[in-house]
Structures are given as C-alpha cells and as structure tokens.
Amino acid sequence: MNEQEQQAQHIAEMLLTIGAVSLSPDVPFTWSSGLKSPIYCDNRLTMGFPEVRNQIADYFVQRIREEYPETEVIAGISTGGIPHGAWIAERMNLPFVYIRGEAKGHGKKSQIEGVLQAGQKMFIVEDLFSTGGSSVIAANAARAEGADVLEVAAIFSYEFALIKENFAKHRVSHFALSGYTVLLQEAFTRGRITQTQLETLSAWREDPQAFSDAHS
To answer: Would you say the pTM of this structure is higher than 0.90?
Structure first.
C-alpha cells in the first residue's frame, strides 16, 4: 500500500469513526434531490473533532506542497469547504477566499469573497464530490475572475462516473483524499456491513437511480 492509499484508508476510518459517513443499505436515506441512497456523508461533522480536522488539513497541505508548490491562494467552496480551506491557508500562510454557489443578489453581487488577484494560482477545497457540479461552478467562477485554477480537491468522493465526466468536460483537475471504494472496504473490514450489504452498496454507485427506484 502506497502513501496515498494509506491516507485514503485513514480518512475513511476517521469518517466512519466520528459518524460523518453513515451506511444504511436496507433503510436508505433520501437526498435533497429526492434520490434514495444507502449512504449519507456529512463532512461538516469533522469540524467538531480537532484531531480529524487537523489530519485532513495536514494531508491537503502535503498534497499542495508536493504537487502544487506554486499555489498562491487557497479557496473554499461554500459552505463545507470554507473551514477546511481556511485552516489550510493558515498553515501555509497564504491568502484565502471563498466561492459561493452563485453571485449574491445584493451589494456588490460577489460570487467570490476575499481578495483575489488576476493570474493567481489557486487551489480549491471542497468537502464532498457528489456529481462534481458545484465544484465545476466554483472553478469556472474563479477562472472568470482571472484565477489560474490548479486543482479542486475534496475530503471524500462518491466516485460516480459523472464526477469524472463533469471535471473532464470543463478541464478541471480534481482529487479526493478518500472515496467510496476504500470506505466500503474499511466498513466491511470493521464488521459494519455484511457481504450482502457490501454488494448492494457497490451496485448503488454503478446505478443509483435503479436503487432509488427499487426503494421508492
């Protein structure tokens, strides 16, 4: 197991331990979109655990220093990416901005809050990749303001094929500290799910709509 794989496993372990990720293949959750899902991820809970949030920030800082040492500004996507982005910027002594899902309807009608210089090389932080849509919107908003977006990185990814498609379509580099495959294996190893549930959960990622239809 290489270092990146070890980090992914460690993140998955922490998310399961603090309850940031819940797995319920038999009694699924309902997302805001109405889709039925056997998993619910709330990475906002990481804010309440100093050891967890510090480790997440350390892993992000390590990636930036190793892969994007030219980074000049850290951005957090509203709302889940804001605290983690701010902690990263503090560690690296870099400027921080945050990006809204859409421009405000009043005042200066800003979509990006903070001081951003045209041409600055930006590393964007998100808490979760579901479809990748909000991350693409944020990256394009930053580009429209003149930023050179190096990468959008998240704590966790559902690893849907649609995520790769959305990022590729808009030519945005993306990365997640951990993902669905590693998390399922960690949950199974810990005895949190059975073999049958593991198979159900694995199938959901391949066709979430079919799972939702079956549980409607």
So the answer is: yes
